[in-house]
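Quick start: read one record
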Amino acid sequence: MRTLQIAVACYDAANNADMPVFTVSVTDGEYATGAHYDKARALAREAGYERPFVCFEGKDQTAILSAARKLELVPRVVAVDVTDGEVCSVRCDAGEIKVICYDTSNTEDFPFVMFDLPVGESGSNVPCWAHVQPADVDPTLKKLW
């Protein structure tokens, strides 16, 4: 049995473009016939979304990311204000990103906020304390370049 996340490009009830992500499970045989897309479309319909239903799975992420970059939806500039050693603000030029600030040098003083995060070399998990903060969109950052 495979469990997949499928993004479905469609419209919401207010006729706004959307791309919700649904989790579906299929056998290898069902996957070969595209049943994972049928299940995702059915979940989108049940959730009140409207046609067209165009489905994308993980292997399609490169094309989606490329389109998002062309439309300038993906940040290229991220500014992090770390005045006095604390994250004061995070801004980006487009879209919204989640920024993880971490410090592995003194984890003993912060045992209650310890995480194993894949921030090490080659994505290896590193025990660290972390502060996760979404970035605010600031279009004026584009003028920096």
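The longest helix spans residues 35-46.
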